[in-house]
Design a protein that fits this description.
The protein is an alpha+beta fold. Bound molecules: adenosine-5'-diphosphate (ADP).
């Protein structure tokens, strides 16, 4: 082998070694870069996790995460404080072992009203501001609850998050406020009733002599005083309804008879305004029986619709809805109806009045809500009537709602659970027995 060949071999070897070194270096740097990238990603994820857990651990709202079977996966410290359960003990348990909800009267939540039970099949977030949470050591705390179902990309629920907070303080303040309103309105009702009485005496020709002009003024004062008295009565009722102090003496009642008697009083007001009225009883339109609302029609055979409610309270509700129908209807007809099926008794009031805009309907049964239009600006009202109606209807496990066609009219519906004739008879017998026993303590009434 000569020198030139040797040199050539050495050069080739050097080149091969250099290329190998370059490849190794390249692979090494890529590996390093990959390593730092995944480290960065891991660090980021770690950061994210830390941030979420800082937020979860520091907020005062209780947070519980359940999987799609209802098993608890996560509980933040506020949730452990509120429920009295240690997060480790609760992990993996079904929510029903950890969460006990009762209503303000101390009754257990039925399954179909419990937001925890409903969240895993609901298509929207659920809220409940009236629940009371019973902790592991039986402490009762009013809570505001919201439950949100979580969905995967196939729109299937895979978990649900519950967020709840203690509202004991807010409830106390609300109670204080409503106590103030009820004391104030109660105190003011008495002098207003006296003024109303004296005005009526002053206008009574048999008692006083007044000239034509003075009579005009007194009539106006009388109307305004009556209005003021109604406002105080509404305020008092709404304050009582709010904290469950509305007096109620439910008995078995037959709604057909009850409405028939009531309808003659109601229609008087409507007819004074020139409106037609009707009272319809029946389970369907074809078999409906139209009873002359003046009460002069023949006796008809009709189904008996029994419910359990306080007749005085129900009278307040129907009168309020009917009076509204008259108030907000310029011309046409106001109908009072009764229908039902095996489980439900339905009362409805239909009018051909101005109707209610769609956007106002969800707010209509809230306190002080009035539709803002020219009619409500000229027609007096407090916006408390429908709120009180809702509260009364709910006392008897009923439901009230409205359907309306603006410009054509509105229909208010009230549903109550129906008592069968046998159940009504049995209850009536029990009521009779109870009436024979001495009364334990007097009840207060509004
Ligand atoms: P108000 O004292 O204002 O009548 P309510 O609580 O009884 O208070 O009613 C709330 C509002 O609902 C009313 O201000 C009115 O705007 C609307 N409303 C109630 N009933 C009817 C009806 N039959 N037709 C049209 N609007 C109605």
């Amino acid at each position: 082998m000569n020198g030139t060949l040797l040199i050539a071999i050495v050069v080739v070897l050097v080149i091969i070694v250099a290329v190998l070194l370059l490849v190794i270096y390249h692979l090494y740097t890529r590996h390093q870069a990959g390593k730092s990238g995944s480290q960065e990603l891991a660090a980021n994820l770690q950061d994210e996790k830390q941030r979420s857990s800082i937020i979860l651990n520091s907020i005062e709202d209780g947070v519980i995460l359940m999987d799609k079977y209802g098993a608890i996966q996560l509980m933040n410290p506020a949730a452990t404080t509120l429920t009295g359960w240690d997060a480790k003990d609760a992990a993996g348990l079904d929510w029903s072992n950890v969460i006990t909800l009762i209503n303000e009267k101390g009754e257990a939540y039925e399954e179909d009203k419990n937001p925890f039970a409903m969240a895993l099949s609901s298509d929207k977030p659920l809220r409940d501001n009236n629940a009371v949470l019973v902790s592991r050591n039986k402490k009762e705390q009013p809570v505001a609850l919201s439950l949100t179902p979580l969905r995967d990309k196939n729109d299937q629920i895979y978990a649900a998050v519950a967020v709840f907070r203690d509202v004991t303080q807010e409830r106390k303040e609300e109670r204080r406020r409503s106590e103030f309103i009820s004391t104030a309105s109660h105190e003011m009702r008495t002098p207003v009733a006296a003024i109303e009485g004296y005005l009526a005496l002053a206008m009574n020709e048999k008692v006083s002599t007044i000239d034509y002009r003075a009579r005009g003024y007194l009539e106006k004062a009388h109307v305004a005083t009556k209005h003021l008295g109604q406002l105080f009565q509404d305020l008092l009722n709404s304050a009582k309804a709010e904290d469950g102090r509305l007096s109620s003496h439910p008995v078995v009642m037959e709604v057909g008879d009850f409405l028939e008697q009531l309808s003659s009083d109601l229609t008087f007001v409507a007819e004074k305004k020139g409106l037609a009225t009707e009272f319809v009883v029946g389970s369907s339109t074809t078999s409906s029986q139209h009873i002359d609302a003046t009460g002069t029609s023949q006796k008809v055979v009709r189904p008996l619709y029994y419910i359990k409610a306080d007749p005085d309270r129900l009278r307040e509700v129907v009168t309020n809805i009917f009076d509204n129908a008259v108030k907000y209807t310029e011309s046409g007809k106001v109908s009072l109806g009764l229908t039902g099926d095996n489980t439900v008794v339905q009362i409805y009031v239909r009018d051909t009045g101005q109707g209610i805009p769609k956007e106002d309907i969800p707010h209509l049964f809230q306190k002080f809500y009035r539709v803002d239009n020219s009619a409500t600006r000229t027609i007096g009202g407090t916006g408390l009537g429908l709120y009180i109606c809702r509260k009364i209807v709910e006392l008897y496990r009923g439901r009230i709602w409205v359907e309306s066609d603006p410009g054509k009219g509105s229909s208010f519906f009230i549903n109550f659970p129906r008592l069968s004739s046998e159940a009504a008879e049995k209850e009536r017998a029990q009521e009779k027995d109870a009436a024979l026993k001495p009364v334990a303590s007097p009840t207060n009434s509004v």
